[in-house]
Write a structure and sequence with these properties.
Blueprint lengths: L12 H7 L1 H7 L4 H20 L10 E5 L5 H5 L4 E6 L2 H10 L4 E4 L10 E7 L8 H9 L2 E10 L24 H10 L2 E9 L5 H14 L7 H16 L1 H7 L2 E9 L4
Parallel strand pairs: 1-2, 1-4, 2-3, 4-5
Antiparallel strand pairs: 5-7, 6-7
Helix pairs in contact: 2-3, 3-8, 9-10
Length: 262
């Protein structure tokens, strides 16, 4: 099972994500971080979530994203009514300024008075919350289905990563595929459809490199020797898929609903 963490009562998570360097950077208009989020949404996150939608259900008309951060994903979601919610006031202010066509709220979804959605989306959220099971269970009550994008970081490059509030991305734990599927089971949800996808096997990684080359002058970061090593490692991992899948993280894209719901 994935490492569990005890809920911390001494951390102001709203302030944490207000001030987190990753989110500060993506709030800056025209920044490379903002451009990278845009391409990841367009090429990876949104396609993965839409492919996880059950084919026998009508397309969702009213969609809520919990943990929407700066709003890129919910703004791109193809639905007539879109609502985004995040605990970070700074993220919500940036989202409102950039995507005026989307309704945004700041706060905890449990007390926001929102419900009756066709789909509740959580993308890169559950790894950030102390009680992932309770969070997923409560979120599922707000809609007919939940759509989840969960990073699966049970890979070699994350073996020595120190998970917790001080993690570079704020991830409290890492998941394997088995951990991710068990999370839905423990939350009392019925899995409808799921897929494990490695981002380096999609067009996203080539687009990231092109963006870095355009903005930074090099496709890979670091010194020249480091860039050469990274290029060789990536080329080898791409040529040997089994190696790439052990080396790099993947994502679980899934749809589910409360067990017994119809």
């Amino acid at each position: 099972m994935s490492p569990r963490v005890s809920p911390r009562t001494d951390i102001d998570y709203a302030a944490l994500y207000d001030e987190h360097p990753e989110y500060v950077a993506r709030r800056a208009s025209g920044s490379i971080e903002q451009a990278q989020v845009d391409l990841e949404v367009r090429l990876f996150k949104l396609p993965g979530l839409l492919q996880a939608l059950p084919g026998h259900l009508p397309p969702p008309q009213r969609v809520l994203e919990i943990g929407c951060a700066t709003g890129e994903l919910i703004a791109a979601f193809p639905a007539p009514e879109r609502v985004g919610l995040d605990i970070s006031p700074a993220n919500i202010a940036a989202a409102r300024a950039r995507f005026s066509e989307v309704e945004f709220h700041c706060g905890d979804f449990r007390s926001a008075g929102l419900d009756g959605f066709d789909a509740v989306v959580m993308s890169d959220v559950l790894e950030h919350v102390p009680d992932d099971v309770g969070f997923l269970r409560d979120a599922a009550r707000l809609g007919r289905i939940v759509l989840v994008n969960l990073p699966l970081e049970d890979n070699w490059l994350n073996d020595r990563r120190a998970y917790g509030p001080d993690d570079v991305s704020g991830h409290l734990r890492r998941y394997s595929l088995a951990d991710g599927l068990a999370l839905f089971e423990r939350a009392g949800l019925e899995m409808l459809q799921h897929a494990q996808v490695w981002v380096h096997e999609t067009p996203t990684e080539a687009a990231r490199r092109a963006l870095r080359r355009e903005r930074l002058g090099a496709a890979y970061t670091g010194s020249l020797p480091a860039r050469v090593v990274k290029r060789l490692v990536f080329a080898t991992a791409t040529a040997v898929p089994a190696l790439g899948r052990r080396l790099f993280a993947s994502n679980l894209f899934a749809s589910a609903r409360i067990r017994g719901a119809r």
